[in-house]
Structures are given as C-alpha cells and as structure tokens.
Amino acid sequence: MEKGSKVNHHLFVRENKAVSFSDETLAKIRSLIRRYPEGRQKSALLPVLHIAQEELGGYLSVDTMDYVASLLGINPMEVYEVATFYSMFYLEKMGKYVLEVCHTGPCAICGGEEVLKHIKDYLHIETGETTPDGMFTLKEVECLGACGNGPVMQVNTEFYEHMTEKQVEKVIEELRQKQGEEGTSKGWAEQFS
Amino acid sequence: MGRAILLDKVNIPGIRAFEVYRAHGGYKPVDKGLREMTAAQVQQEVIKSGLRGRGGAGFPTGLKWSFLDRKSDKPRYLVCNADESEPGTFKDRYLMEKLPHLLIEGLILSSYALGVKTCYIYIRGEFKYLVGILETAIREAKKNNYLGERILGTDFSLEIYVHPGAGAYICGEETALLESLEGKRGNPRIKPPFPAYKGVYDCPTVVNNVETLATVAPIISMGGETYAGIGTGKSTGTKLISACGNINKPGVYEIEMGLPTEDFIYSEEYCGGMKNDRMLKAVIPGGSSVPILPADLILNTAKGQPRLITYESLSEGEFESGSMLGSGGFIVFDEDACIVRNTWNLTRFYRHESCGQCSPCREGTGWMEKILYRIEHGQGRMSDIDLLVRIAKNIEGNTICPLGDAAAWPVASAIRHFRGEFEAHINVPCTMYNGQMKEERAL
Ligand SMILES: Cc1cc2nc3c(=O)[nH]c(=O)nc-3n(C[C@H](O)[C@H](O)[C@H](O)COP(=O)(O)O)c2cc1C
Ligand code: SF4
Ligand code: FES
Q: Which CATH architecture does the domain made up of A97-177 adopt?
C-alpha cells in the first residue's frame, strides 16, 4: 500500500517448499479456532497468520498462505486478500530484525523524522530495503499508539520508545550482539491461553 | 480536580494480578451487579450515568445498548474496540496495560446487561504484548469463577476472547472491525443495517471502546446518579486524555470533565507546560481526525469563555472556531511546528489507511497528499489552497464510513486557521522545518 516504498505488496513469493507447524502450534491453532462459532473458523485467520509469519520464515510465502488456507478450510484466495490488506503481514523475505519507525504526526514533531534519517544513514539503506547481511529491514509505519513516548520504533513487535539518534544506534548495536540468540519477547502462539 | 475513578488503583504495586486487584476492592462491582441487580437494572444505571462513548463519536452508551435487537433468537455479541490507532491516542493501551482487570470487570457487567455470552476484545496487532496480559487476566478471572460457566453461581455464563488485528487503522471503524473479526479485509459496511441488528456473524452486536466499557465498573459501584454528578452538563464523569507533542510531560491523565484546557496544558499536575518554554501554537484536542485549533481558540472560545475539556465546550463554535473531544488524543504544537508539514503528514496517513472502497476517499486523499507535498516543498500554486478546500468538501459526507470526513477535517481546519502559513509556503520551500532532509519520497 505504501507508495514509494520498495516492498512490493503484490508480488507473491512461492518457494515450492512443504511448510508445517509443530504439533504444539497445531494444538494451539485448533484451540484458537474453537473460540469462534461453528462454521466460522475463518475468524481465526488473523491470529493464525501472525503465528505463521513468525514461525514459518518471517514472512508469508504462497506456500505458507496455502497451508493456512488448508488448515482453516478456506479458499487460498481468501488468505491472499487478507494478507495483502494488513500492514503487519510481509509478503517477501525480511531481515532478521524489522525496524518499523513511526513517521506519523505526533512522532514527527518530536524528532521522528531525524531519527528515521539517521537510521538510513547509519545502516546505508532506504525505507523498504534490507542490509546486505540480512540483519535489518527498514520500514516506515503509521502511528503505533504510543505517541506520548515518541519517537517510537517497533522491532519485531517489540516497542522501543523515546528514540534519539544515539538511542537507535545503541538499539541497533544491541540487536547485532544478540545475533543468533532468540528474542526476549514471547511469541504469538504463547500470547494466547 | 484530579479525580481518579478509572485510574484510582493504577499505582498499587502488582495491581495487574487478580489477587492484588481483588484485595483492593476489585470485582466488588461485579459481585454487586450479578448478585444484587437484574440485567435491566445494570443497563438502567448506565443510562442514568450519562456515559458517552469514549471511542470518538461520544454517542450515549445506554442509548446504544437499548438499540440492541433483543427479539432475535440469534446469539448476541459484545465487541470491545481496542484497535486504538488514531494518531495521538494511547489511553486504551495504558488502561489495558496497567489495569487489565478493570476492563474485564466492565466486560462482565456489560455482557450481563446485554445478555451476551461471548465477548471479543479486538486489539490492534501491534499491541501483541497486551494480548498476553489480557489473556492472563481472563484466565485468572476464570479460575476465580468470574468468567466461564455459571458465574458466581448465577445463571449467567460468559467467555471473553482476545482477537488481534494486523495493522490497519480502518479496523477501528466498527463495521470494518466486524469484517476483520470475521477474518476478512477491513472494508467498512454500508449502514444500515447497524451492528445492533446485524453485527458480527449477522448477529445483534454492540461495539464499544475500551474506556467506555471499563467505566461501567465504577458506574455500578457508585451508582449511575452519583457518576452523573461528576463532570458538567452532558459531559459526565471523567475522561482519559492522552497528551503528546511539545509539552513537558506527555502521558495519560484522567481528568474530571470540565477542566479548562489552559490548566491541562500548563499545570504541573498534567502536561506541565510547554517544552523548553516555547510558545503554544496549536492543539489538535481529540485525535488527528478532529479540527486543529490555534492557541487562542484552544484556550478560549470565540465568545471569550475559557475552553473546557467537555464534549460541548470543545465543539463550541462548530467548525468555524471549535473542534471536538473525539478520542481524547491531545496533540500540542509549539511555535516551531510547521502546520503545512503536519497537515501533509496526516493526509499521508489517511491516504495510506483509506480502504479504497469509495472514490472520494481513495482518490481525494491521494490528491490532497500530493498537493500538500508540493506546497510544503515550495512548488505549490496559490490556487492550490482553495483546491484543497474544494477537495476536502467533496470528500466530506460522500463516503461509506467517516474516515473520509476524518481525512477532510484536518486539511480544511488547518487552512481555515493558518491560511497565511500555507500562502507563505507557495514558491518558498518550508523554512520552518529545518531538518534539511533530502526528500526521497518521489510522488
Ligand atoms: C476511521 C475510524 C477509526 C476508528 N477507530 C477507533 C478506535 O481505534 N477505537 C475506538 O474505540 N473507536 C474507533 N472508532 C469509532 C468506532 O467506529 C465506534 O464508534 C466506537 O468503537 C464505538 O464505541 P463507543 O461508543 O464506546 O465510543 C473509529 C471510527 C472511525 C470512523
Ligand atoms: S470512506 Fe475511505 S475508508 Fe471509509 S469505506 Fe470509503 S474508502 Fe474506505
Ligand atoms: S505518532 Fe508515533 S506512535 Fe503515535
């Protein structure tokens, strides 16, 4: 949807790879489906796509979307049209860490534009691009609902607030150090009881 | 002022845990409602309280509940709107993070009043960490028989589920939200039929904001009449205001309705005045969709009365000289802020978030963004200013959902109050915004 950004939302990637969830995740998905009335299992699509993106490669390939469609018993097209609508779903491979910088008004008047520019200079990438080592993808996003703590950045759904030029450098370097280790925040599947 | 009804327990250590919450009087309103009152009585108290929707439109909550189709034999649903994506608004996030059990209490009482057995909390996907916090609170409540089958030994049973969105402002609009809850794209529906008759799964549905529903607990606890005695006129009770921008203390504040905006901005108790002692230039008082007001009109109405934080006072003077309380997202601009740049920025937001179903909104937001971009960069024409006004007028009222209006109002109001600043930008690139950034965005 974002004009000018280099993420092409309508270019689907097919990997021709068999994808599948672990048994544990499948059990979680079955319990998610039960939260909605009989015959309305399509309602579970958004939560299941979040889990799929996180556990099956960091983005939604056609293979993943078709697999999700088969799990929910819906037409693959119904998954594609949803995956292309919502900005949290990625349709191509992303860096290990996706830096999503809020560029909306309240953050912008508190120095958000400078922070964004600084990240571009520091990582030598433009919005929508990934660093050559595959570590970072830069995205500009709209208001993250944390405007009082702006400028705000999300990294793989974790909030980083009160960003300054120095602060983002620190965050980026810490993420580099973390390379290989798992993130500290809980995953999507674990959020649900 | 400084009256805390919703946030009274917010500073108690460990208050997120059920046991602590219960030990501090939590769930007493539920005990009272379910054990001592009928469903109709609970609804009656909400009507008496004068509570109005805190999601933006300010529609009376009790009245909305009375529209729910109770003749249908289909199940009824309550959907809690936790999409909170309106720029400048971050109060629901605060409430859910600090006091998840307050929301659960409100959901139980509201579901009881409405005869609802299943309630969904639709929360924006970016608040992933809150999904876990809410699910934990639900699990605790269930363990203590406040949720699940036969709550507190009564005939009333209820399940609450958290449902995440995935990044789309439009899903805060109630019918788009219902589409999204059904696993579809968030395209708003044409109304009527209203959700009260045909909501989620074509069943009678009530959609209310997080803060609205949370407020039901203190209303039941103190009684609707007592609640109505707080605040002023048709703006009863307290309101959470999320303040951001160029102030000393951004944050979420609970205010009693009727607080003068001047006190809110300058007192130590709230915003603590302007950052770096800059001058106040303008305020958007109710989230990015409501009209911006210049300093003199946010502090005083056109009639010279102090402007108060109430539905009535903030909209006094209508669009000529007033604005709206909206969602309570209070965005403060100092003298260094460029109104043209901010208007361009917000228009970009609406263009990005338009679902694209109606041409006035889909095309109009794109045109306005391009024109504002060129004005901001010194490539505008004098006629562009009136052109913007005309486009905004043609969007307003001509679309399926109010996002069209929400995109039009900021542009129309910025030009109404700051026309000189737009004119000064024609032929001269923005001199106020001195970031000296190379603009990569090719439009
Ligand atoms: C574009 C758009 C976005 C909206 N976003 C939200 C939102 O994030 N949260 C919310 O509570 N209401 C939002 N609303 C208002 C809802 O449509 C609805 O009026 C509200 O949830 C009703 O709850 P209330 O009566 O308790 O205020 C939005 C409306 C529009 C038109
Ligand atoms: S007004 Fe805009 S967002 Fe609302 S339905 Fe029409 S195109 Fe979609
Ligand atoms: S504007 Fe950045 S979080 Fe709201």
A: 3-Layer(aba) Sandwich (3.40)
